[in-house]
Amino acid sequence: MFEARLVQSVILKKVLEAIKDLLTEATFECSDCGIQLQAMDNAHVSLVSLNLRSDGFDKYRCDRNLSMGMSVPCMSKILRCASSEDTVTLRAWDNPDTIVFVFESPNRDKISEYEMKLINLDQEHLGIPETLYSCVVKMPSQEFARICRDLSQFGDAMTIACSKEGIKFSAAGDYGTANVKLAQTAETENQEEAVVVEMKEPVKLTFSCRYLNSFVKATPLCAQVQLSMSAEVPLVCEYQIGEIGHIRYYLAPKIDD
Amino acid sequence: APKQRKIRQFFVKW
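^ Those are the sequences you sent over. The predicted structure of the assembly is below.
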């Protein structure tokens, strides 16, 4: 039997908001360690990797490993039926055809159950090599979302340049150009507002704005985002999910032939 | 213009 309970269903609601732009279906791998998902978008330009650790759940039981293929739009519809204050429980039997979502109101006077059919997916699983990145930037996630939104008005692609001075985002298009520079913040008491650059070598990479704008749908999950970059390899855009796990987006760069 | 790469060019298939 598989059973995973989260008092704060809002976390799962936010996770679905964070993946539904990119994925239409995905396999949720459930084991003793927790719930993992790895899936590419339809165009195979980006990859989403989600990890929810079992010890982050309020109750977790997984008697045998399960791979559950789910329709992301359907799951998203179901989670929109939960109130943010509700507790959510995911439940499935061994060799399941369906998964059940149970939402309980705080005083347990309303209990809703939604059963969703599972789908068979033949998904390609990619091994992501351990990489030491040339630049790792931590910055406020809202600021990153704002910059992606603002710069995507100027062009389809955005260049991210990172040096020891800070991080620079730029876009160019028919209307003109846009540049946003963020300096590293000094020692600040408010870690949520900090911009921190750890740099081994300066990096300059170009990425599709459309994908970055999908990644920033994860902004409500965490006040800070971490961007890891090295020359000519995918960007990693990472959001911590409270004490339970993280979501990482990998985005293939645009490279000159 | 730079060309968009596919993500699996960078990762190993399991």
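The radius of gyration of chain B is 10 Å. DSSP finds no helices and two strands in chain B.

Shout if you want it in another format.
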